[in-house]
Amino acid sequence: MRLKKLVKAEIKKNNIIIERKKFRSNVGRATYETRKIKIPIITDIESIYIILHEIGHIVKKHSNDIEKPLYLQETEAELFALSKFRDWNIHQRFPEDYELLKQRAQRYIRWNILFDIQRSLHESKSILRLKNIHIKALKFTKIQKFQKEQKNLIIQKNKNKNVKN
Ligand SMILES: [Zn+2]
Fold first, then answer.
1. What CATH number is associated with residue 71?
2. Domain that holds residue 122
3. Where are the alpha helices (DSSP H) in the chain?
4. What pLDDT, in 10s, does the model give residues 69-94?
5. pTM (2 decimals)?
6. How many distinct structural domains can be found in the chain?
7. Looking at the domain assignment, is residue 114 inside a domain?
8. Lowest mean pLDDT among 8-22, 43-57, 151-165
9. Residues β-bridged to residue 107
């Protein structure tokens, strides 16, 4: 598989160390300080995507210590993986896989944004608001469009109520 070679080259290029114990399931982990990643065995497009996501964390220098909020770290890792997929033409060779993984990534980031907002409410630090979410994450998740649609729905409902009354 040519893609396997591309993945291995990408790992080598970024001086990344693969931890021997591989996950059986399709999950990964990355530690920037040691440049180590735990990755699934390459079996399909999805496993390659997960590996690229973990490489993304290393390339973007993510760690638990940095100020960058978690949702933004996850966004950068997802965007890294998706852009590599486009570089490797996966979006054209396997359009359905690409679309599915992209949609899943968008959901994952939406969830991460909401989680970070929720968590900020319980911590004494400043509260994270939707307007403070990085434009990269807003654009990628289209979260504002979701909000607008919801607002329109409410307005519509109220209009209907008024008509009945
Ligand atoms: Zn991640």
1. 3.30.2010
2. 2-129
3. 2-13, 45-59, 70-87, 90-93, 95-122, 135-141, 143-164
4. 999 999 999 999 999 999 999 999 99
5. 0.83
6. 1
7. yes
8. 151-165
9. none
Q: How far is the centre of ligand 1, averaged over its atoms, from the C-alpha of 53 (Å)? A: 6
pLDDT for the residue 144: 73
- Residue carrying the six token digits 């054209």: 92
Helix (H, G, I), strand (E, B) or coil at 92: helix
Give the tens place of pLDDT for each residue, 37-66: 988 889 999 999 999 999 999 999 998 777
How far away, in angstroms, is 87 Cα from ligand 1 center? 20
CA of 96 to the centre of ligand 1 (A): 22
6 domain-assigned: yes
Residue 104, Ramachandran bin (φ over 0: left; ψ between -120 and 50: alpha; else beta): alpha
* Dist. CA 23 → ligand 1 center (Å): 15
**109 C-alpha to ligand 1 centroid (Å):** 10
